Amino acid sequence: MINAWINNGGTGHGGWSEQGTFATGVGEPGDKVRFADINADGKADYLTLQDNGVVNAWINNGGTGHGGWSEQGTFATGVGEPGHKVRI
After folding, report:
1. In degrees rounded to 5, what are phi and psi of residue 20?
2. What domain count does the chain have?
3. Element (H, E) at 6
4. Is 75 helix (H, G, I), strand (E, B) or coil?
5. Which residues have C-beta within 8 Å of that of residue 41, sequence separation ≥ 6?
6. Which residue intervals make up region (Disordered) (predicted)?
7. 80: CB partners within 8 A, 6+ apart
8. Where in the sequence is the domain holding 74, given as residue range(s)?
9. Which residues pair with 56 in a beta bridge?
10. Fewer CB atoms < 10 Å away: N or C end of the chain?
């Protein structure tokens, strides 16, 4: 489960505002989850790294009126390195 907080530092009030759960997760532990904009739309997409270096992706549908995530399947097949060595 992924929860989010917005930094209120620029509003003059400081602190953080809880936004709640924005992704329920896909069964991977947090150390295998990454966020990166893989389709150049300005929104962070949801990625998981497997032990064999495979990267699976979900596109962020926020702002489209539909919300949620669209599963894209395997985004990268890996290069034979373990997931903890993959940098996005």
Report:
1. 85, -165
2. 1
3. strand 2-7
4. strand
5. 60
6. 1-28, 65-88
7. 52, 53
8. 2-85
9. 48, 74
10. N
CA 14 to chain centre: 25
Q: Are 55 and 73 in contact (CB under 8 A)?
A: no
Give the angle 59-62-66 at the CA atoms, nearest 5°: 95
pTM (predicted TM-score): 0.71
Task: Identify which of 77, 44, 85, 79 has the alpha carbon closest to the alpha carbon of residue 63.
Answer: 44
Q: Residue 53 corresponds to which tokens in the numbers above?
A: 């270096």
Smallest Cα–Cα separation from 57: which of 24, 26, 21? 26
d(CA 45, CA 26): 13
Token pair for residue 35? Answer: 């966020």
